[in-house]
Amino acid sequence: MFGYPVKDPWRYGVAELDADRRLTALAEKPREPRSNIAVTGLYMYDHTVVHLAQDLIPSDRGELEITDINKAYLEQGRAHLAELGRGFVWLDMGTHDSLLEAGQYVQMLEQRQGIRIGCVEEVAYLKGYITAEQCHRLGRERAGTDYGDYLVNLAEEGGALSRTVGAGHFPRTA
Question: Using one digit for the tens of pLDDT, what is the confidence trace for 62-103?
Fold first, then answer.
């Protein structure tokens, strides 16, 4: 699980941590949160999650809660929380306003930096899963769109722009 500090934790699943920053408890939309660490909704589970999910019963809200899955892992000593602090951005999209705000934030970053956020073709190219020629072809298939132009330019520049603005997270494998 990933946690992110928020000013309104009662809107989210909340993680409680001990003095060593280890996960000790989880609460779903608590009226009186015991921390401000929201659980972001990004989880990595093993294959046993299917069996845990089969045993869920609806909450008082009448919903199957992902927090109950996370609590089961916590009870088994297999839940861990990675805190996303300064330098990370987590954007809630659970309301109309927050969805609009997230879209505007991504749009502003892409326009100012000239890069795309979440461009799977770019990641595939930078990791060596596709060639420059394949990236170029994918861009041409989207001719006349900003996204297509981005892929064509990426292929023609050899990924130079991406590497200068932090795509070091995606080193080439080939």
Answer: 989 899 999 999 999 999 999 998 889 999 888 999 999 999
- DSSP for 83-150 reads E--TT------SSHHHHHHHHHHHHHHHHHH---TT-HHHHHHHTTSS-HHHHHHHHHTTTTSHHHHH
Q: DSSP character for 59?
A: -
Picking from 168, 11, 95, 16, the residue whose alpha carbon sits closest to that of residue 1 is: 16
List the structure tokens of 141. Answer: 């298939």
Q: Rounded distance, CA 40 to CA 50, Å?
A: 21
d(CA 158, CA 22): 42
pTM value? 0.71
3-state DSSP helix/strand/coil percent for the chain, to nearest 5? 40, 10, 45
